[in-house]
Amino acid sequence: MGLRFDPVGGGQFKQAIQQIVEAERVPVKQLEARKKLEETKLKTFQDFKSKFSNFDKTLAEFSNFKKFRELKVDLGDSAPYVDVTIDKEKAEAGSYQLEVSQLAKRASVMSNTFANPDEPSLGIGFVVVKTPEGDSREVFVDSKDASLRGIASLINKSENLGIHASVVNDQADPEKPWRLIVSSKKDGLSQSMELPELYFMDGEEDLWFAERNDADNALLRVDGFEIEAPSNELKDFMTGVNLKLKQARPDQPITVNISEDYQKVAGKVKGLVDQINSILEFITKQNAVDEKSDTRATFTGDSSLQSVEYRLRNLLHEGFPTFPSDAEDVRWVFTHQLGFEFEKTGQITFKEDKFTKALQNDFQGVTEAITGENGLAMQLREVVAGYTRSPDGMLVTRETNLRNRIKRIDDDIAQKERRIEQRQQRLTEQYSRLQGSLANLQKQQQYLSATMGGGGGGNLVSQLLGG
User: Fold this and answer.
1) pLDDT digits over 48-59, tens only?
2) What is the pLDDT of residue 376?
3) pLDDT exceeding 90 applies to what percent of the chain?
4) N or C: which end of the chain has fewer CB within 10 A?
5) What is the C-alpha to C-alpha distance for residues 166 and 150, in angstroms, rounded to an integer?
6) Domain check: are 147 and 232 in the same one?
């Protein structure tokens, strides 16, 4: 009987190599399982870190009195006549009386009439415009654009002219109702324009400006004093107060009341409390362990998170100093006086009505306790900075350490995979050489069997070959 063997890459040889490689990959699979746990832990930590991401932005609104406070405007029934916006960091609470006697007007001109606004019947020429700055600019009109709508389109496409053109239907003359109107883009005498000059030749019809409206400034009274304003939109007309005049209302005063917006301030504090609660809730959930919990991928009992919780809770139990002008000693304000209440769940409940009442009773003292040099917001900012500061903040270094651990596992996996690949290559080469040796022995067996006529010599060779 001749010697039989499996070709390399298949059968017993392939199976043997596969079994050896699988055995070699057991440590790699263990590392991959560890990496998955670390990645889960990193994602969990990043969720925690993200809860601090808007803290700095939120606390920036608490950095001083004027940033913290909010103002509101009450116009009564005068909203259709004037719009008032305020810069809360500049404006002051108070009451003002306005009277809009006249709106600012923009300069405009209107052309003679035409039967067809799209008929290019004006020939070829220029519209010359003199800007409020004194510069002259030309708009070239060729024969194909020499209609009312063509000229209007060319004017509106030209930059830095300071004017706008439109074509209107004026039924005062039904047979020739179309006119071109050219207006300044802005109101007021400072934006007044000179009459545009028209130069056209070889046209079937003539174009000229038949009517003109002159620009004018707005007129209003402020607390009884007459004021002339350069436009209808008055930025910083009074300190931190912007006006937009919408409709004249002569002899009918408008009362503008600017006051502290306690509800909006309370909403800002509630937003801060919500962010703190989000952090505390995360830590509480991480420490909630049951039989299904895999603490290898969580932060159960983690000292870093516990220190965050401890510091926040202690800070919110502290008192914050205020220095009333009518008192000799410092007065301390505690968070429970401002509507902060701790629940059994570990969360903080914020009573907005209690906070609003405290603001109404002592606005200066409450805002100082929150925004002052040693107030709640400043101390919170210092605490958060210790966690988020780059490169040595706790959250930053902790995330860096988690990433480094994952990278080390990746490096270990890559190194072991290279070794397995090299091991597989060596085994394949060894089995290939063994295949060659067996093939030679088989050929020798066949040769001896043929030479010795299939007698005992063949049996002897088979015995030597282990057959």
Assistant:
1) 888 888 788 888
2) 93
3) 51
4) N
5) 10
6) no
* CB contact at 8 A, 118 and 149: yes
The pLDDT, as a whole number, for residue 454 is: 52
Say whether both 192 and 274 belong to one domain: no
- Report d(CA 76, CA 90) in Å as an integer: 23
At 11, is the pLDDT very low, low, confident or very high (cuts 50, 70, 90)?
A: low
Residue with the two structure tokens 């005068």: 78
Section 396-413 average pLDDT: 91
Give the DSSP letter of residue 196: P
Count of CB atoms situated within 10 Å of the CB of 446: 14
Q: Which residue has the higher pLDDT, 460 or 154?
A: 154
Same domain, 244 and 324: no
Whether 457 and 449 have beta carbons less than 8 Å apart is answered as: yes
370 neighbors 62 (Cβ within 8 angstroms): yes
Specify the 3-state DSSP secondary structure of 205: coil
**93 shares its domain with 124:** no
Residue that finishes a domain, picked among 235, 260, 285: 260
Provide the CATH number for the domain around residue 147.
2.60.40
Q: How large is the average pLDDT for residues 407-418?
A: 92
- The string of DSSP letters for 238-301 reads ETTEEEEE-S--TT--EEEEEEE-HHHHHHHHHHHHHHHHHHHHHHHHHT---TT--GGGS-TT
**d(C-alpha 204, C-alpha 199), whole Å:** 14
CB-side neighbour CA atoms (13 Å) of 173? 11
Q: Which domain holds residue 249?
A: 71-104+218-260
Confidence of residue 420 (pLDDT cuts 50, 70, 90): confident
User: How many structural domains compose the chain?
Assistant: 3
Rounded Cα–Cα distance for residues 310 and 81 (Å): 55
Tokens 């040889």 correspond to 13
Q: List, in sequence order, every residue forming a beta bridge with 233; answer none if it has no partner.
A: 244
| Per-residue three-class SS string for 51-97 | CCCCHHHHHHCCCCHHHHCCEEEECCCCCCCEEEEECCCCCCCEEEE
Predicted pLDDT of residue 463: 53
Q: What are phi and psi of 192, to 5 degrees?
A: -65, 145
Q: Which amino acid is at 369?
A: A
Same domain, 151 and 91: no
* Lowest mean pLDDT, pick from 108-117, 182-191, 431-440: 431-440
Domain co-membership, 271 together with 389: yes
Please give the mean pLDDT across all residues of the chain.
87
287 and 394 both lie in a single domain: yes
How many angstroms separate the Cα of 141 from the Cα of each of 77, 128, 202? Answer: 49, 11, 12
Residues 36 and 52 in one domain: yes
